[in-house]
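So, does this match?
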Amino acid sequence: MSRTPGALGDLLAAYSVPSGHFDELMGAGGAVRPAWRPFIRHIEHTTAARLSAADASVARQIHDNGVTYNVYADANGPSRPWGLDVLPLIVTAAEWEPLAVGLSQRARLLNAILADVYGPQRLIADGSLPPALVFGHPGFLRPAHGITPPGGCFLHQVAFDLARAPDGGWRVVGTRCQAPSGAGYALENRVTIARLFPEAFRDLRVHRLASFFRTLQEALLAWSPSDGEVPHIVLLTPGPYNETYFEHAYLARYLGFTLVEGSDLTVRDDRVFLKTVKGLEPVHGILRRLDDDFCDPMELRTDSALGVPGLVQACRAGRVLVANALGVGVLESPALLAFLPAICERLFGEPLGLPSIATWWCGERAALGAIAPDLGGRILKPAFPQMPLEPVFLDRADADACARWATRLRTAPDDFVVEEYVPLSHAPSWDGDHLESRGLMLRVFLVADGRGQYSVMPGGLARIAGRDRQVVSNQRGGRSKDTWVLSDAPVPPFSMLRGPLGKDDVAQSSRIVSSRSAEHIFWLGRYAERSENSARLLRAVLTRLPYADSLMAEGSPVVRACVRHGLLPPDRPWGEDATADLADLEALLLAGLADPDAPYGLPGTVRQTVRAASAVRDRLSSDNWRLLSRLAGDIDEVPVGSLADTLEFLDRVIIDLVAVGGLETAHMTRDDGWRFLSLGRHLERLLYIATTVGEVASSGRGGDPLLLEWLLDLSDSLITYRARYMRHPEELAVAHLLTAEPGNPRAASFQLARLAKHARELPGGGLPDHAAALTRSAAAWERVDEGQRQLFAERTSLEQRLAESEALALALSNAITLRYFSHVYERQTSIL
């Protein structure tokens, strides 16, 4: 198949690979390799325009799903979208099977090395492992020596970075074992690319990935010491500012594990517990995405605010499974590659099946002596990954540089390794409007199966270089590829579900809500409602600016409401010149909307909404997250043109926020998480009603029809009022609708009744005193006969009632925080 017909042939004709690099797509003479031929036949009529459209579709789906890799993990910076190439990497079954066997052997070998290093240390005693390589490595944790994890497995999951040499053979270039990242991204890549080429995916018999994750799930459940209980496993993340937090939330949801941060966990009597809204819940297994030394500030890194005090002791007592075991970071030294062949013969009596790149540890005098005269054309790098030094390619032509490094090696040889340089293979990538070859590396994931072996993910995370085409690095603009491992036989369907459930399983199943999650969910409700309220207030003011001078006069409740809700700076003086004030007011409102650095305005509130949502991303549906992701993108691109453009933009923002609320109402299970979300929304809505209506009441202008119409607009009650009364707004009817109407979801009495109900049904008996006070307040609003009161006329009475409602809302918020988020009222008996 030397020439591909059709539209694709023209694209392939311009495709080339640099000399000296293996071509993943084409063999000698420009013939498409056998692995790629079936896929090429499926897309042979694809044009450049279609590939560009597919590439745009992938980017759009990545954006909508919120798939990110935060290179700098900056709390204030934007998340970087995950890069995914439209074309997969294809590997045949014949090529994959020996690769999988070699990697499985290597994983077993590393686990055996860990068992020895943290046990009898025979490999060190007999010289198979140099003591300096182990004890000098920051990843060797002395507090972990002598700890045997449940099941005897130290290495529950591991990833190997592979590169293909010019001869076509794969080489292991690196090991990732502390918290190997990428498996979740590989799964997301698969979902996206398989949807793009469904016929090709089916006809090529591509292996599924779900079985790998099922093996991980079942192994952790089997090994977790649970004393006969159903094991509770959590996924420990550094938090939402970690660069791979998307993957942490994604895997927690996919595996059915509770996503936690270190502050969510506590150790009591050598047992680990999760702080939940119902009290302390035992934790039996921890799948950690936190580096070793950050895991326990008591015995490891003392300045860590991410870990769990006492976790090492809980491991020492055998009361919890930590996967991977603490201390596995010592395996990530590139210098270890030089010793693996001999250790494999020593422990297993067999040769190492899959070679590493040629490596020399400079701490060995014989190795140093052999390579020191000829360093050119090799790579010098730190022996310990934690050293802040970049690998250096030593050019043979630069004799002075080689001499300087040779001198450095002689003075500190233990700190360095020398590796052979392997020109990366190149794979096809779609770059805007043409095919281009890019350097490629492949990360393959393995998981212990509970029977002494390791299962290999039938695929992996392929990564390609950026525009320089040679260096594979997320920091330098590289992208990823879905990896298709082909099967010689039909691929059976597979599900992550573990089989039929009994009636007791169904009846007792419930999702645990940690205190931290509950707090973020509570504030998600508050910020989402606050964002919608602010957007409505801003729209209601900007809409009326051209013709409602009287609304903005001195002492205007409209201006005071804008200040109180963060749409205007609080220290701005307002004079009596209404015309000048109107122009100034519009400029300030628009500035607060358009300037991301302004200390006031709507964008900051929306970002707080998205930030709170990102902290509980594992609990949000895909549709909900897409809406929030779209909202975050929109708020960063506020139109700065005409007022009409701004109002149209605000309409879109309000629609998105209403849609977010609708998804929460219609699709969230009525569990404790939903209850805290609903509490946050109703609290914020009650505060909004109390403040806006209160500003009008205190102004003494409650009879102004323009102000009354403005109030109805703010509360999305204008249509309700017109349908009911069919007349211009009047103070009596408006007051009743916004404060005492029990059927109006925007009325104060409605919020009070809902808050009372939720407060009564909170976990652990709820907050009965607060519920009773809220119920009395709701009843007080509703008892007054509509025809016998004029609340706007009786300003003192109205202001007092609104102030009482506001005080009740704030008191409830404080009580919720103390009881359920801070555990001030935690019962000591909850751990018995």
